[in-house]
Structure formats: structure tokens, C-alpha cells
Amino acid sequence: MDIALIGGHGKVALLAEPLLVEAGHTVHAVIRNPEHAAEVEATGAKAVLSDVETLDDAGWDELLRGKDAVVWAAGAGGGNPQRTRAVDQEAAIASMEAAQRVGAARYVMVSYFSASLDHGVPEDEPFHAYAEAKARADEHLRGTILEWTILGPSGLTLEEPTGRIDTAAAEAGTVSRGNVARTIVAALERPGTAGKFLAYNDGEQEIGEAFDAVS
Q1: Reduced to 3 states, what is the DSSP secondary structure of residue 144?
Q2: Is the CB of residue 60 less than 8 Å from the CB of residue 97?
Q3: What is the DSSP letter of 161?
Q4: Could you tell me what percent of the chain has a pLDDT over 90?
Q5: How far apart are alpha carbons 201 and 26 in whole angstroms?
Q6: CA angle in degrees (0–180, nearest 5) for 11-14-17
Q7: Over the stretch 133-169, which tens digit does the pLDDT of each residue have?
Q8: Which residues contact 81 (CB under 8 A, 6 or more apart)?
Q9: Around 107, how many Cα atoms within 13 Å sit in the side-chain half-sphere?
Q10: How many Cβ atoms sit within 10 Å of the Cβ of residue 50?
Q11: Distance between CA atoms of 58 and 167, rounded to whole angstroms?
Q12: Which class for 1: exposed (0-12), middle (13-18), buried (19 or more C-beta within 10 A)?
């Protein structure tokens, strides 16, 4: 596949890029800061300089035209509600609309374990803006014609990846960023995960087997 990976310099993205390249995909990693290009290209991905926060429809179309898939791994990083909404909700939705227009049919969204319009996070808590933005972006994605998969990892760690997860957990725990990177690859390789929200912690089941079981 020819993949546009949005948020190409994020911690998860930098782990996913070499795995995707190794699997035979072409990865166009979208970054905002040109100083990050060398680090991204060291993974085997192609760095693409673009500020997704300011792109118009034509810019999005140009960015995604010719791609088979979009992976959304971007995030505003919290702390600024306006920027969180601009990136995690508005830019994400703009990418979905562009993907539909230009025929980038496969879309993998990296969300989080408890993402839902009923997230229950009080408005006066700092996490509210992120929870709201992610929920609205995920809900918009569900209403598109794209072949979407929403990944819902729990609390992210820097532990070494095990390649094993738990998709049956009732409550959020933790998951290594390396395992999240592996779930991106696994989802793209499994059309049966389309139309699914897959929440998971680190666990005991091999990622491919876990995704096959829910496909």
C-alpha cells in the first residue's frame, strides 16, 4: 500500500514507520517541522512537509491523492483546547473528507481506549477537550464510506513491545507504544478489521491472532 501517515514524527509513528516499510508498504510521513525530516527518513519513510492544522480542502486532496490508505497518528498533545480541537477534531475530519474525495479508501485512526461521545469527562478537567475532540472525530469517521478501523489503545508506555495484547479487557490498563505501532500494521493487513473499534491493553494474545479473532 501507499500510505499517508499523519503525525509522522510522533512516538508511535516513528515506531510504526519502519515496520510498515519492512512489510512492503510505501510510507509518506506527514510532518510539520522540517527539522524532523531526517529522523523520519531514517525509518525508511518519505517525509512530507505539511501543516495539517492550516490545510484547505485542495491541500488535503493533494496530500492524499494517489494513496491507498491513511493512518491518523497525529495529536495536538493537549494543553491548549483550541489547538486540540483544531488538530484532533477538525483536521482529522478534513482528512477523512479528503480521503473520500480522492479514493484513499482505507483509514486507520489511532484513538484511545475509552473514546466515546459518552466519555463523561467533566468540562472543567483538562482532558475534556481531548476526549471531546477524539470522540467527535471517531464518530464522523464511522459515518463515512471509508474502510475504517479505530484503534483504542489504553495508557501508553515506553516498555519494550511484546507483540501481544488483550482485546477483551473491560477496563483500560497500559500498552506499550511499540505494540500500538504493531497494531497499526496488523489492522492495515486485515480488511476484516474494517468497521471495528478495537480497544486493547498489553496482554497475552499475539496481535495478529487477536485481530483475526475479532474480524
Answers
A1: coil
A2: yes
A3: P
A4: 89
A5: 28
A6: 145
A7: 999 999 999 999 999 999 999 999 999 999 999 999 9
A8: 128, 129
A9: 31
A10: 18
A11: 38
A12: middle
Residues pairing with 3 in the sheet? 27, 69
Question: CB under 8 Å to 160, separation ≥6 — which residues?
Answer: 176, 178
Please tell me the distance from the alpha carbon of residue 158 to that of residue 115, in angstroms, as a whole number: 21
Burial class (CB in 10 A: 0-12, 13-18, 19+), 61: middle
* Helix count and strand count (H, E) for the chain: 8, 11
By C-alpha distance, which of 72, 73, 71, 69 is closest to 12? 73
Looking only at the bridges linking them, the beta strands covering 69-72 and 2-6 are parallel
Q: Write down the H helix ranges in 52-206.
A: 57-64, 81-84, 92-102, 128-142, 177-188
DSSP tag of 193: G
**The total number of residues written for the chain in this structure:** 215
Here the cell at position 179 is 505494540
Quick: pLDDT tens for 2-19: 999 999 999 999 999 999
* pLDDT over 90 (residue 120): no
| Spatial contact of 208 and 169, defined as CB atoms under 8 Å apart | no
- Reading the block at residue 36, the C-alpha cell is 524532523
